[in-house]
Amino acid sequence: MSKALLCPCEDVTSSEVEHAIEKGYCDVESVKRFTGFGTGMCQGKQCLTAVARLLEDKVQPKPKPSQLMAFTPRPPLFPTELSLWASASFDPAKAPGGGVPDAIGLTEHALKPEHPVPAKAKVVIIGGGILGLSLAWNLAQRGETDVVVLEKGYLCAGASGRNGGGVRMQWGTPTLIQLARRSIELMGRFARDLGVNVWFRQGGYLFLAKSDAVVAKLERAAALHNQHGVPTQILTPDAARDVVPHLTMTGVKAAAWNPLDAVVFPWPFLWGYAHAAQKLGVKVETFTKVVGFEQRDGKVTKVITDRGDIACETVVLAAGAWSPAVASLAGVALPNEPHRHEICSTEPLKPFLGPLVSVLDSGLYFSQSMRGEIVGGMGDPKEPAGMNLGSTQRFLTRYSQALTEQLPQAGRLKILRQWSGPYDVTPDNSPILGRTPGLPNLLQLSGFVGHGFMMAPAVAERMAAWMATGESDELFERFTLSRFAEGRLEREDMIIG
Fold it and tell me: Which backbone phi and psi does 124 adopt, to 5 degrees?
């Protein structure tokens, strides 16, 4: 294979593009996600034509014109310094606007399969994100391979491919602490167990608190963490600056620090589960939209898709913030609401930042990837509920102001790309798991409020065991949908943003 450099910004060679084609990524958008080409300073301006030409030469049968089209552009149009965005103004009392539109989860895609879906399966999982795919792999590991995963877009199209990759044990309830500990343990073994490097890095999480109320929250959480074997420490601002010397600690009263928290690269993490599950016999059907259900005698008997119907024994709803819309097709009302969270990435720097840093009061968070980019985001208290995934200048201004307050030298960095993803928010900030009242073979796996990515390995491990053995597990009894009607909430308040 040729080692010719097609993307100088990201060091992507022609051999790496050919490897992506061999894996089945046969359009420009998919190759971008598999190799990272076009995500550097030029945003594809120098390399797009070369990659499209290679696809035209190597893909058989010959690719459709739509497979060679430019990938979805990400704002800003040109790399722009954080200091410029920080100098802009915004109205803190005004709700965010729609922003630059973002196409996501399109079903009429060049790679949409022309053949029908399998006519039947024992288990149908709706949602090809990290929760659905990790569950599929765990079921297959237990010998249950008659599983079909349905994804309405491409893999990584939804929230799993749009997050910052942070994984932490610092939570406010024992259950989530234990799940996070187990997830991070499994992530540390991922490359060995599944043969995929997810760039797992335990640089820790450093939470900063500016108000007395948040200081008290961190102190309560740290005591709980210590009871469950998580070595979180409460630090003074000076001690926190020893962890990250570049921080100003402006307005910070205290910090919480756990060195065992981590960051992983989301895309290979998701692909690793998908490919490993497929090797064991699981079928992953992309660009496939669920349009209805057939029910009989209080059970779901078929999942109806735009590529045919699948008769099944069990259905798992793992579609994240899209779950309420899918559930409504079965006459089930979920209380989840989608909330947009924006995120961005800068040009790369020589690595200097070990932990992920978060100002819990404002929802600011940022970390440095192993390639050197500063990747971060910030919640917006004025963001209304709704599946709005556009990108806004308001976010860039708020984020740049908050980041440069704590890390002034970041003002010289250029923002290369910006995107958004949906938090899947429930009334108590805890997930919805287990059986659906009135439809016991429709299992719920959603409502993780932005932390499904980090909980997926542990939750999927336990859910697969629960499904395979029928043994009781309090996780799928406490966090059921019925708790909302019963007034039995499971409140979690250690949410970033």
Answer: -115, 125
Handedness of CA 252, 203, 16, 67 (dihedral sign): negative
- Cα(286)–Cα(279) distance, rounded to whole angstroms? 16
Query: In the chain, what are the domain boundaries?
Result: 5-71
How confident is the model at residue 108, as a pLDDT? Answer: 63
Q: Give yes or no for residue 40 having a pLDDT over 90.
A: no
Mean pLDDT of 271-288: 96
Ordered strands of the 254-258 beta sheet: 80-81, 414-425, 337-346, 374-377, 364-368, 356-359, 205-209, 254-258, 233-235
Q: What are 265's two structure tokens?
A: 């690269």
Residue closest to 424 by CA, chosen among 296, 337, 298: 337
Domain 5-71 has CATH 1.10.230.10: no
Flag whether pLDDT at 106 surpasses 80: no
Q: Facing residues of 358 across strands?
A: 207, 365
In this predicted model, which residue has the larger pLDDT, 357 or 157?
A: 357
What's the gap between Cα 379 and its chain centre? 15
Q: Which two tokens stand for residue 470?
A: 């029928």
Query: How far is residue 17's CA from residue 39's CA, in Å, rounded to a whole number?
Result: 14
Measure the CA–CA gap between 236 and 233, rounded to whole angstroms: 10
* pLDDT tens profile 292-319: 999 999 999 999 999 999 999 999 999 9
How many percent of the chain have pLDDT more than 90?
A: 83
**pLDDT range class, residue 122, cuts 50, 70, 90:** very high
Average the pLDDT over 268-273 and give the result.
94
Q: What is the pLDDT of residue 481?
A: 98
pLDDT at res. 107:
46
